[in-house]
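Inverse folding, one chain.
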């Protein structure tokens, strides 16, 4: 087989711009899937992907196509569009030579369009511009074309306009892929170099690595070595995606396919690793790094007990999602659970939903937090903490650093002021934490559309958690979109805000806040808890404290029992005597009483 007839490419776009629908049309055009078997979003295999209309797991497919009596092998990788999975996307882009940049004609270029485009350009890929949904009414096609011309520096005739839903003009894309995207420049006679861009686990087959063969060839029976993990194993089967597994005699240079190994631990097969034969020495393919968890949260069973059931579910889920990390954790209020690390809030949401659906678990998720780097006095090595409970004594801290993100927001100019106010939001007397870098205008104002603005800024990850997306959509009436990526760790004045209920610290309610934001944050939390905590037979004090200093306090009034109801006469001193006795009893209960913290209290911390 000649590598000149191979084309490796992927589709990149913003969420809901029609990427999966376009992939469906390619499957039909190449007759990879018959019309009888075809269903919408064919490559999205998880039910959750179909419901939400987003791609969560990448999927590869090998298609056969004939052009001018010449047969071609087209390898398409359908990648996730969300920034939470940008590491997985970057590894997928490293496995191809070109990408189709898909833009919705009704929405134009969005934030994640830019984020994925920048990833593709970093890899040096050939970009084919395509505008989708031209069948919709009220679109300004010329304005969207102008945006793409300015962004990609291409000629108007190079932009392909299609309707993936109706199939209009889709047949012109694959010839453009063959013409513009270069064939793999690989050598079958060189030592084996294969890039792992994804992996999965099968109970019967073991670890299955999804690979791009850069040099050499591979067949069943050979022994391979994973360079990063330094693990040796045997190859049980090789093949291509059709899109199901289709066994082949061998995989040659330039091909994309799968390797079934004899490994039983998916940790030993990592995305971005390089595979070679045991008796060969090659260099690592560039760009390998560990997926970095950015958001951490506690996972607990709502009914309590059975932590082993949750542990088994997390282990099984990790076999399909290697970026998920977790370790045991105990809470006085919620019992035994796990502190888990995620790539972002969408990743957290997807994991929570999959645990609920696939393993029938009803979970309580504690307030998400970010990792902080801390330097302690007398220690040279940096300490990384993932939860407020790990925060050391302030007197021992030299410096605290938090993750800073590069944030790009695209919004119509009409909402620029409201978006800027949102980014500048801070409690009275406290300084904003957003650093503005630049503004950029795209498109031109016409009768159907208006000028849009790209805001480039730097913002702490902690401020993006939980409700930033909802607030941005609210102030922009749904028109703004954003993408972010990790920039660096940046010094910050961080303190631990403890919450005391009935005089006792509740570790799971503690949170890390900016020093000058601590008072309003503590005030909001205790006010929220005042209405959430159940009333007791005694008065309950709810306090927010930094170290030994109380900065905010509220009281949950006690339930009143009418101890004088049985009196039907006599001197007033009898009534006073009973009330004094009740008062002493309540004081005693305040010293000995315990307050159960309901799960709703953790949501109050999250929404502060």
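Residues assigned per position:
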């Amino acid at each position: 087989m000649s590598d000149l007839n191979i084309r490796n490419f992927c589709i990149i776009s913003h969420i809901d711009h029609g990427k999966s629908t376009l992939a469906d049309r390619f499957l039909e055009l190449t007759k990879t899937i018959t019309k009888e078997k075809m269903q919408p979003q064919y490559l999205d295999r998880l039910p959750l992907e179909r419901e939400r209309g987003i791609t969560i797991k990448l999927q590869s497919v090998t298609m056969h196509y004939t052009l001018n009596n010449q047969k071609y092998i087209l390898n398409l990788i359908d990648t996730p569009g969300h920034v939470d999975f940008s590491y997985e996307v970057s590894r997928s882009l490293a496995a191809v030579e070109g990408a189709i940049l898909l833009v919705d004609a009704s929405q134009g270029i969005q934030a994640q369009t830019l984020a994925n485009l920048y990833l593709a350009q970093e890899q040096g890929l050939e970009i084919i511009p395509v505008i989708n949904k031209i069948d919709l009414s009220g679109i300004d096609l010329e304005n969207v074309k102008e945006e793409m011309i300015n962004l990609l520096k291409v000629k108007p005739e190079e932009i392909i306009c299609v309707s993936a839903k109706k199939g209009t003009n889709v047949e012109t894309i694959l010839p453009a892929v063959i013409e513009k995207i270069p064939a793999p420049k690989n050598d079958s006679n060189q030592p084996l170099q294969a890039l792992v861009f994804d992996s999965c686990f099968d109970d019967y087959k073991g670890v299955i690595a999804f690979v791009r063969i850069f040099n050499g060839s591979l067949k069943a029976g050979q022994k391979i070595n994973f360079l990063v993990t330094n693990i040796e194993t045997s190859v049980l089967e090789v093949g291509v995606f059709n899109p199901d597994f289709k066994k082949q005699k061998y995989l040659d240079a330039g091909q994309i396919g799968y390797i079934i190994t004899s490994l039983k631990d998916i940790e030993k097969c990592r995305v971005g690793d390089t595979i070679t034969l045991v008796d060969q020495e090659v260099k690592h393919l560039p760009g390998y790094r560990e997926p970095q968890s950015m958001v951490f949260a506690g996972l607990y069973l709502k009914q309590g007990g059975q932590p082993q059931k949750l542990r088994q579910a997390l282990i099984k889920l990790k076999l399909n999602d290697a970026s998920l990390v977790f370790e045991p954790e105990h809470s006085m209020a919620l019992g035994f659970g796990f502190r888990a690390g995620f790539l972002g809030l969408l990743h957290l949401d997807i994991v929570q939903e999959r645990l609920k659906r696939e393993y029938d678990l009803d979970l309580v998720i504690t307030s998400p937090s970010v990792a902080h780097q801390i330097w302690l006095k007398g220690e040279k090595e940096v300490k990384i903490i993932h939860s407020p409970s790990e925060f050391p004594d302030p007197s021992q801290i030299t410096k605290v650093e938090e993750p800073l993100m590069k944030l790009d927001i695209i919004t119509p100019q009409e909402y620029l002021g409201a978006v800027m106010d949102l980014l500048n939001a801070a409690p009275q007397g406290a300084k904003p934490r957003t650093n503005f870098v630049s503004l950029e205008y795209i498109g031109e104002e016409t009768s159907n559309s208006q000028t849009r603005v790209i805001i480039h800024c730097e913002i702490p990850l902690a401020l993006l958690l939980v409700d930033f997306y909802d607030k941005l959509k609210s102030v922009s009436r749904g028109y703004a979109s954003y993408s972010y990526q990790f920039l660096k760790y940046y010094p910050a004045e961080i303190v631990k805000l403890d919450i005391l209920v009935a005089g006792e610290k509740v570790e799971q309610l503690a949170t890390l806040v900016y020093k000058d934001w601590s008072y309003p944050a503590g005030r909001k939390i205790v006010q929220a808890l005042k209405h959430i905590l159940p009333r007791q037979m005694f008065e309950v004090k709810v306090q927010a404290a930094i170290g030994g200093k109380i900065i905010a306090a509220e009281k949950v009034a006690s339930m009143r029992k009418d101890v004088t109801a049985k009196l039907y006469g006599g001197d007033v001193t009898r009534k006073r005597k009973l009330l004094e006795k009740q008062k002493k009893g309540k004081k005693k209960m305040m010293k000995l009483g315990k307050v159960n913290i309901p799960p709703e209290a953790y949501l109050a911390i999250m929404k502060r």
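The longest strand covers residues 397-412. DSSP finds 14 helices and 31 strands in the chain.
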